[in-house]
Amino acid sequence: MQKKYSDGNIYLRLMTLEDTEDIVRWRNQEEVRSNFIYQELFTVQSHERWVETMVKTGKVVQMVICEEETGKGIGSVYIRDIDHKHHKGEYGIFIGEPSGRGRGIGTAAAKLMLQYGFKELSLHKIFLRVFADNIQAIRSYEKAGFVQEAYLKDDVCIDGKYRDMLFMAVIGETKNEID
Question: DSSP code of 42?
């Protein structure tokens, strides 16, 4: 049985194939898509391929953010490219339901996913990349404990325009050397 990661207002549960419709709908919203480096539209088939090649192989742990009171899914968090040799992975999030935005849910979900990554996955470092002009997301990440490690000038080219990225991370409380 899965442990429930909760803060009293939201909880995280492992994503299942039954979540495909919501994930595709959420991820294809312009307000969500525009904040990702990969901005192509999702399809049911591309999401199912993601589950088969990434989630089921352990390269990604993806959770659905649910409201505690209703159990309704409102978004998703994940740690991808999990590197067990170097004990790190890349964090990502999207709040798909507009009613879930601007309420601190992203910060709360990030804190819960950090707990999961450090405790359950035994990671030492969880990092993320964010557009340097996405001030709202940066503030949320900082509240969750992420700190800026690098400013990457003209790091990605989207729709013919170069965009600056921030690289942010949280270091877990683990030993420096792992046996």
Answer: P
